[in-house]
Structure prediction request, 588 residues.
Amino acid sequence: MARDISTVGVVGLGTMGAGIAEVLARSGLDVVTVELDEAGVARGRGHLEHSTERALSGGKLDTAGRTALLDRITYSTSLSDLSEVDLVIEAIPESLELKAEVFAELDKITRPEVVFASNTSSLSITEIGVHTARPGKVVGMHFFNPAPVLKLVEIVKTVVTEPDVVAEAVEFAERLGKVPVVIGDRAGFIANALLFGYLNHAVRMYEQRYATREDLDAAMRFGCGYPMGPLALLDLIGLDTANEILDTMYHQSRNRLHAPAPLLKQMITAGLLGRKTGRGFYTYDAPDSPTVVASGAVSTVESVPPRPVARVGVVGTGTMATGIAEVFAKRGLDVVLRVRSLEKAQASVARVKKSLDKAVVKGKLSEEDAALALARITPVTDFEALADVDLVIEAVAEELSVKQAVFAALDEVVRPGAVLATTTSSLPVIECAASTSRPSDVVGLHFFNPAPVMKLVEVVSTIATAPDVVATASAVCAAVGKHAVHCGDRAGFIVNALLFPYLNDAVKMLEAHYAGADDIDTAMKVGCGLPMGPFELLDVVGLDVSLAIQRTLYNEFREEGFAPAPLLEHLVTAGRLGRKTGKGFKDY
Prediction:
């Protein structure tokens, strides 16, 4: 296919089809485009002229290059004009009936050896291909929008697609300057199958008023380095498009997690489709504008005065405890670091000094400020030394019995009115609070590792947490330069509850042999702009840690889709825990 292609047919000249036609023409190919009527042709020509004009003004094309590109594209309203093309790419609306009709017609018009590629993002290539006499020459080539900019192309093979057709589709995508990944014919392919389950989960969290739209979006941007939060991304994609993809995925997978959240349907019915209508989860200053209009709402946190905090206690000796101690000391607060022994105290202070010295070397801190910060940390071995602190943050091992013992000890000695916080990432905060006689003073403060670097802190309120304690936690985060997001006391809070089911889904996809680990990682990095692919991230986090979090989520929510992937269980049993053991999903 890729060796002898000089002319390509493109059926459909919407945003996607016009983008694909531009990509092809940029690569020196002649392109024959077909639309339903002259109005469609005019719209498509307008898309291409606007896009190439932007490329010209941005210095990515010169005038001669733009003219040559546009001259390579011809327009038609008849499929019969595709009789001599070497390849056809279909990019019409997502309707199986319409696509089947087009493919059946193309089958009669084109030469028998011509390959048909569908740009569908969610429909079955198998179901499209059976409407031709050449199902072995039908393949998916799913470009991402905008096609001239985004590099990923998902090559979708069916059980009857000829192997050389798949190989040639990969080669052709590379010829276009794209990054191809190969996947079996399943709902959503790679990127959408993993992305839309995560987006749907975020909608459900918002629907249940578990967290605000701003906090859900900020949590994933600051906690995972995602380029956009889930609700802002849904507004960009379009809620109607998202609902359609989820519905298609659900009808193929029967996975309840793919069933579109009821809120999506309600918003679509009300005409709130996202940026294209000027309103979705957010309100924009005009249709198709990226500028969000401020809501003007005052949160309950801001309306309650916080308790004063000048002196902070930290319990623990690990990376998280010393990182938190450093964060507070650098911001001018006195820190009492409670450790089990003098030996551990020396090691903890040494760890903080090493981190501060690094900051000095990088020019992020002066030597004087580093020395002052270190002097503000007082290591102690007795809980009694925490008697007069205003806030205590527990950062011991992630075991409930250990944390409960710490909270019981703190309850005995810490002054009334002080705030008691836990950094747990997965355990119920209320279980820690129940070990004290003052559950209203207990809150979750989930810092992310490494604490001196990561901006996010999840503030977790239990059903007993007092409003001024939540306000204090929020004010403390602001004082130390962190971005606080608020949520209820449910397994995984925001970030882990959204992140780990997505990672688990990726393992299930690999386990089912639909795609390889490298292709899945590439799809999510190149197609969705994520900083790491799911398997790279699992290996960094640790497969044992990931499995423990996934089990916690499953045990709390009892969602069948949250059950840990058997492959993850088997790798942990085999001692393949990721980077820390040198072997995980990949070998190091």
In short: Residues 189 and 236 are 20 Å apart (CA to CA). The two ends are 37 Å apart (CA to CA). The mean pLDDT is 94.
